[in-house]
Design goal:
With 297 residues, the protein is of the alpha+beta class. The chain has two domains: 156 residues, Fructose-1,6-Bisphosphatase, Chain A, domain 1; 117 residues, D-Maltodextrin-Binding Protein, domain 2 (3-Layer(aba) Sandwich), CATH 3.40.190. The protein is built from seven helices and 15 strands. Helix 4 packs antiparallel against helix 7. The longest helix is centred in the first third of the chain and has 24 residues. The chain binds 2,5-anhydro-1,6-di-O-phosphono-D-glucitol and manganese (II) ion (MN) (2 copies). The site of one manganese (II) ion has 6 residues, from strand 5. The site of one manganese (II) ion (MN) has 4 residues, from strand 5. Belongs to the FBPase class 1 family. It catalyses: beta-D-fructose 1,6-bisphosphate + H2O = beta-D-fructose 6-phosphate + phosphate.
Length: 297
C-alpha cells in the first residue's frame, strides 16, 4: 500500500514544536538571502559532490549558508547535505536536518525554477523515512514560496521581505491533471513504460527538471511525479535522505501518496547518507496503479 492514513503524529511534544518553529522561521529568513545570491553564482566549480555531479558555485555557497544558519540552531544536532560527504555534528539538539541546498540547480543555467529542500529527522543521519518529523521546501519561482509539512498538514507561505505570509493549507486536488517523469525514455523499464502509456491517456505532461518545482505542480494541479529506476541504474537518480523522503512527507501531509515502486518512501531506509531511490509522488490512485504496474510477482 502506498498511502498512509494519518501517518504524521499530530501530538508532537511542545519542546519539539518550538524546535521546529525555529527551523522553519530560520528557513523563511534565509530564503530571500539565498535567492538574492544566485545570479552571480551560475558558474561551475572544479569540484564534484558525493553523487559525482559537478557543483555550481551556488550549490556550495547555499550549502554553507544553510549549514551556518540551520546548523547554528540549538535545536539542531546534526546537519547533512547533498553537497558534503559526511554528517556534521552541530551540537546537542535533538533534530537532524538533511538538506538539498539547491534542487534543480542546473536550471540556473536556463533561468527556470529551482529551490531548497529540508528534511527534519529525530534520529541520527542517515535515518529512515519513518524518522521524519517535518519537512519543507523553498521554491525560487516568480514568487519565493515556502511549503512546510508538519503535524499532518502541509501549508504554503509566500516569503516577502518582511517575512512569510500564509497562503493556506495545501491539499492535493482529487481530480489530477499533470504528470512528469525523469530519465531518458529508452532507459525506462518495459513495465514503467507501460504504466506511462496509460497515464498519458489521462494526464498532461509537465516536466521542468527540478524535482521540487515539478512536485509543486502536482500539489497545485493533482497528478504524479516520478524519477524511476532505470535499466542500468535501478535506484534512479534522486537521493533518499535529501530529496525523496522529505518530498514524500510533504505529499503525505497534503493528502497524497509516495512510493519507491513497492511501498511508501516513508517506510524505507536510505542506502547510506547519499543513497538513491526510485520515487513516485502524487494522488493515491495514480501511485497505487504505479505499484500494480511494477509488481511483477
Ligand atoms: P540537483 O540539482 O539537486 O542535483 O537535483 C536535480 C535532480 C532533480 O531535481 C530533478 O528531478 C532531476 O535531477 C532532473 O534530472 P534529469 O536532468 O535527468 O531530468
Ligand atoms: Mn536535488
Ligand atoms: Mn542539489
Amino acid at each position: 500500500m502506498s498511502g498512509r492514513d494519518n501517518d504524521t503524529d499530530p501530538s508532537v511534544e511542545p519542546g519539539q514544536r518550538v524546535s521546529l518553529d525555529a527551523v522553519f522561521d530560520t528557513l523563511a529568513d534565509v530564503a530571500p538571502e539565498i535567492r538574492a545570491g544566485l545570479p552571480g553564482r551560475r558558474v561551475k566549480t572544479e569540484e564534484t559532490n558525493e553523487s559525482g555531479e559537478r557543483q555550481l558555485a551556488a550549490d556550495v555557497w547555499a550549502d554553507d549558508v544553510l549549514e551556518d544558519r540551520l546548523g547554528g540552531l540549538d535545536a539542531v544536532g546534526e546537519y547533512a547535505s547533498e553537497e558534503r560527504a559526511d554528517v556534521l555534528d552541530t551540537g546537542d539538539g535533538a533534530l537532524s536536518v538533511a538538506v538539498d541546498p539547491l534542487d534543480g540547480s542546473s536550471n540556473l543555467q536556463s533561468n527556470n525554477p529551482m529551490g531548497t529542500i529540508v528534511g527534519v529527522y529525530d534520529e541520527p543521519l542517515p535515518a529512515p523515512g519513518s524518522a521524519l518529523v517535518a519537512s519543507a521546501f523553498v521554491l525560487y519561482g516568480p514568487l519565493t514560496t515556502l511549503t512546510v509539512a508538519r503535524d499532518g498538514t502541509t501549508t504554503e507561505y509566500v516569503v516577502e521581505d518582511d517575512g512569510p505570509r500564509e497562503v493556506g493549507t495545501v491539499s492535493l486536488p482529487d481530480d489530477p491533471t499533470v504528470y512528469g517523469f525523469g530519465g531518458r525514455v529508452p532507459d525506462w523499464t518495459d513495465d514503467f513504460t507501460g504504466y506511462v502509456r496509460e497515464v498519458e491517456q489521462e494526464l498532461k505532461l509537465r516536466y521542468g527538471g527540478a524535482m521540487l518545482a515539478d512536485v509543486n505542480q502536482v500539489l497545485t494541479y493533482g497528478g504524479i511525479f516520478g524519477y524511476p529506476g532505470l535499466r542500468e541504474n535501478p535506484e534512479g537518480k534522486l537521493r533518499h535522505q535529501f530529496e525523496a523522503a522529505p518530498m514524500a512527507y510533504v505529499l503525505h501531509c497534503a493528502g497524497g501518496a509516495s512510493s519507491d515502486g513497492a511501498q511508501s518512501v516513508l517506510d524505507t531506509e536510505p542506502d547510506g547518507l547519499h543513497g538513491r531511490t526510485p520515487v513516485y509522488l502524487g494522488n493515491e490512485r495514480l501511485v497505487d496503479d504505479l505499484e500494480a504496474a511494477l509488481d511483477t510477482r
